[in-house]
Amino acid sequence: MTVEGPALEPPALTAYDKIVAKTQKQHRLFSAHWELTYRCNQRCTHCYLDVLAPAAPAPAELTTAECLRVMDELAAMGVLNLTLSGGEIFVRRDLFEIAEYARGKQFLLRLFTNGIAITPTIADRIAALHPYAVEMSVYGAQPETHEIITCVPRSFELTMRAFRLLRERGVRTAMKTPLMRENVREFHALEALAAELGAMFRYDITISPKDTGGRAPLQHRLTDDDLLWLFRETMDPRLWVNRAPALDQPTCNMAGNALVIDPYGDIFACIQGRRAIGNVRTLPLRTIWEESPVWQELRQLTLGALPVCGTCELRAFCVRCHGLALIEDGDLRGPCSVNCRDARLRRQVLVEKGLLPSDRAAPERVTLEVGD
Asked: Which of 203, 231, 253, 368 is deepest in the core (most CB within 10 A)?
């Protein structure tokens, strides 16, 4: 029998959580994630993008003037959260012009960067923006682990320098780690490193194929043993034991209150869902958001509308990604094999902890192929 009681009640929603949920329900644009460029000064082997060299020509990128106009449109629609990412944002020479304009529009601004271009002078200019946070990816607690992924010598040293320079200037930072076979057993060392740097620590178990469909990044995906170890170390049972996702609710925030803008002006529902909904060069952003039928189509992807997932024994332990289901398994409405695997292993750990009965039926093991 499932264990009940206050100790296993999920954490209460904060006031901010309630605001976000309201904007999702109303399909009100609240957050925008803007990929300013696909040029990058690292060559990370797990990256889902086919990045370009830092100095590569990119004539199709939105111009500075176009970026400022789109920010006017975002502000007029009441967007609060604006994230600027890449590629690597600091390869754009107009980055500070764009970021300073965003600050003037009073967005809650996040900057995603690898940090290796952040010098004392750059750190001063970042501090003057008063961003909500600067988030930098770290792929290992040791230089060797990190640089196996980035393929750039001294990248660990330079990223650590960036954390320290920003901390000295009072800038909030976050250390983000995609967990991979190469670094998962450094998890606690990574937590300790973030604490030493004065940074928030965030991690993600998602390693996805290339946006083009290439499967090379999946060589880094955690094995079953890796995930079992991680879940045993980190899982909060309150989030899972009594979880009962409603059949009439979406399984994720796709098409809820956020969108993605790519360097060329295409609009997507999320980072994983690479189905262009419109382009800001040909239509006003408000028109794309309010009139495209794609948003309603995606919002109808509730759990009950998914023929397999809606009846699956593992649905209470699953965090399904529609985009991954499409790009990796070929069916937006079908099961996402890697999410199925994750759910099965979460359930296994809860059974081990005595929080679930061991005789509950579950789908058989999902076999995943990796490689090109």
From this structure: 231
Do the Cβ atoms of 39 and 266 come closer than 8 Å? no
Q: Residue 91 and residue 109: Cα distance in Å, rounded?
A: 18
pLDDT in tens, 170-225: 999 999 999 999 999 999 999 999 999 999 999 999 999 999 889 999 999 999 99
Residue 89 has pLDDT above 90, yes or no: yes
pTM of this structure: 0.91
Q: Give the integer Cα–Cα distance in Å for 235 and 160.
A: 28
Parallel/antiparallel/unpaired status of strands 278-279 and 266-268:
antiparallel
Smallest CA-to-CA distance from 66 within 104, 96, 36, 40 is with 36
Give 69's pLDDT tier (boundaries 50, 70, 90). very high
pLDDT for the residue numbered 188: 98
How many beta carbons lie within 10 A of that of residue 93, not counting itself? 8
pLDDT bucket at 8, cuts 50 / 70 / 90: low
